[in-house]
Amino acid sequence: MxxxxxxxxxxxxxxxxxxxxxxxxxxxxxxxxxxLVVAMISLGxxxxxxxxxxxxxxxIMVYAGAIVVLFLFVVMLLNxxxxxxxxxxxxxxxxxxxxxxxxGLFVFLRLLRGTLPAVSPAPEGYGGFxxxxxxLFTRYVLPFEATSFLLLAAIVGAVILAKRRID
Amino acid sequence: xxxLGVILKLLFLVLVVMGALLPVITWVERxxxxxxxxxxxxxxxxxxxxxxxxxLHPLADVLKLFGKEDVVPLGxxxxxxxxxxxxxxxxxxxxLAVVPFAGVYDFGGGPISMVAADLDWGMLYVFAVGSIATYxxxxxxxxxxxxxxxxxxxxxxAQMISYEVTMGLxxxxxxxxxxxxxxxxxxxxxxxxFRVFGFLEAFGWVHALPRWLSFVKLPMWGxxxxxxxxxLFLTCIMAENKRPPFDVPEGESEIVAGYHMEYSGMRFGxxxxxxxxxIPVIAMIVTTLFLxxxxxxxxxxxxxxxxxxGTIGVGAATGxxxxxxxxxxxxxVIVMIWLQMQIRWTLPRFRYDQVMDLCWxxxxxxxxxxxxxxxxxxxxxxxxxx
Lengths: 167, 386
What we know:
- The complex is a heterodimer.
- Chain A has two domains: 1-85, NADH-ubiquinone/plastoquinone oxidoreductase chain 6, subunit NuoJ (Four Helix Bundle (Hemerythrin (Met), subunit A)); 125-167.
- Chain A is mainly α.
- The termini of chain A are far apart.
- Chain A is globular, with a radius of gyration of 20 Å.
- Chain A is built from six helices and no strands.
- By secondary structure, chain B is mainly α.
- Chain B is globular, with a radius of gyration of 23 Å.
- The model of chain B has no long low-confidence stretch (mean pLDDT 85).
- The A-B interface holds A 28, 30-31, 34, 37, 41, 44, 53-54, 56-57, 60-61, 64-66, 69-70, 72-73, 76-77, 128-129 and B 77, 80, 119-121, 124-125, 127-132, 134-135, 138-139, 142, 150, 153-154, 157-158, 161, 164, 181.
């Protein structure tokens, strides 16, 4: 096994275990959030193996480094435990989850049976921050700006909500 | 064998930082505070009566910390309590992998870059690794089952996340100037000089000015091109390290010792080490980005090798140049460490709201303005020389 394949299987296993840890750790919310961080970091490592360096860096910087910290904030401040959460009355999420994971399993089994189509090698600089930046500011500039507008609206909303508490 | 080179380069940096810089910094911390507070400072630890002006104190500290009991408080989350100091320590060490401590040299077998991992996305790696350090603080305070600890870790993580935003933005101008995120490329670009008043030649009336003006050259260092970026970045990265004046997460007068209050023995020592380890790491990053890294001002690599190879041959000249560059790098690093220690013992602690105001209301707008102005200037220069 090549080093790349070994690292891929290692981080894939860590990601799966950490994701399971996140879902199954219902008694300890902070441990659950920390498992999410470990899953995020191993995903970042897999992106590095795919040579998608910008995505890897952002995965760790934004998701692992900032967003989950905010999750932890909420969990710690409210001191949430499993007995606080209301029991779900509706069966809809369960059915939806079963259907969705069944579909995932189906696709996975199909992939296992067939052979993957031949893929041409990625062009030079693919996945690097230069290429990605160029694509973002030329071809995808409208979605990019639209996203920034959405974020601005979210910030304004957050400020208004926070202000209302104080006034 | 490329792996051996990588290991040797990393080992060199880690040994210099952990073995030489770290103990001396802890000693300087004590002696400098003593000088500034009109005391004598640590001078009692001795081996057979030899005291060496207190230089043996770091050794005594480590022996003492290892000998102490490692207490896990009642009701604490044991596993997380034990792992938090390690999370705090590791990011500082692995940042060293992308720090170039000398340039690129050719000893006949192809170019050798004096950096363990020459990543194209080097600065992104530094940011990503640095953002993981937040978890050391968060987990330490929460897992201790102590209100002071929790308050400290909340303060610490809010502060670190806030300053990360400004830290990234304050460097955008620098990346625009050097057109790279690779630390070795940024350092190499600073090996050049530029004529300060060269842009005047684009105007017609330049003949009215004295001739020597066109010979004034400055090294193309980040601090020369981005003075505001330097101040903003240094402030942010010092706030990330949570040392005074940004030590509200451990503010003794308010929350006892903050996030590492419940730690004892060597586990407290690990937090202490993490904090002191980041001082040379910060100095190295700032040196590489803003103070020209390993370069020697006004004497570029080609100039040095060209001047020397006539007398001692190319191989020896390259080797000598390498040694000079390593010395230059560590000289600048020591200057940056001195600056950080001076700031630490000069300024009093900020209040918590002042820390946040400084970040969001002053430094964030300034760093955005810096990006904007840098863009205009770069476009203007391109227009001028077209």
